[in-house]
Amino acid sequence: MLIPTVRRTWAQVGQTPIIRYRYDHARISVIGALSISPQRRRLGLYFRLHAKNTSRDEVQDFLWYLLQHLRGHVIVIWDGAQIHNRKGLHEFCYQYPRLQLEKLPAYAPELNPIEAAWHAVKHPLANGQPDNIPQLGRALLGSLRKARASQRVLRGCVTQSDLPPFCLEYCISYQTVSNGWITNYLREIESYTPDLIGRLMTVLHVGSMVGAIAWGLVADRMGRRANAWGFVMAAAFIVVYLNVPSNPILYALVGFAYGFGLVASGVWGPYFAELYPEHLRATAASIFNWGRIVSCLALWSPALLPRRLVSKRSCIQVR
After folding, report:
1. What average pLDDT does this structure show over 295-315?
2. Model pTM?
């Protein structure tokens, strides 16, 4: 609507902000869907804009639009709005058997992640002053495209809802205890290109090479126990890595520091070997890597979940 959403904002003391707008009920209706791909767990935001209130015809047209972009079996989870009545879409569902419609419980917006997506889209438009529908449409389209381009925003829409967590959480949990969690995070969450991920990983390994020399000198002069601080440093930078703003330069700097700290463990393999007789030292050095058995168990954690929480189909939330 041309009547803007009003939110709190900053202003000088004693000078209350005043928003002047046109008292016009002209509006733009948006129908949208939040999708989760079955394999990569990549999220997407699909939408259509209309100059009137959406009806069953627009819903059917939007479902056809989704089927053109999504392959395989598609499960649509939506609320019980009248325009979502399955009886009116019976012929359409019969024509496209790979489409499955599922209804959310009544009065349960907390289960619908698309509600959070609309909040993220409307937030930048608050306190706006559009003069006409084309101006409002340009602002709305820009906000929708910005939200669609951010995997972090879309993922937040899913995780903040009361729906069961999807498998991406468990994939990240497993990768956190193995060597490849950073590439998985950059690819799945930040949607970086393979070329950029390769450059960032190169910086991380440069940090590891520098750290190997530095921690070797520390171990020789201060003892190997001092290298435990490298683990503390690496653990701290994991937290920083997962919360830093999406910026390749920041990821490069934090990755360098993470690699620098993590490689401190390299001096402990020879140390363990020295504790054993000479004929067992080669075997003893391998004991350092036996802890990886624990991380292998993380692969089985998704299997412990109920099957209804782990779907092999595309799942979308529609409004």
Report:
1. 47
2. 0.51
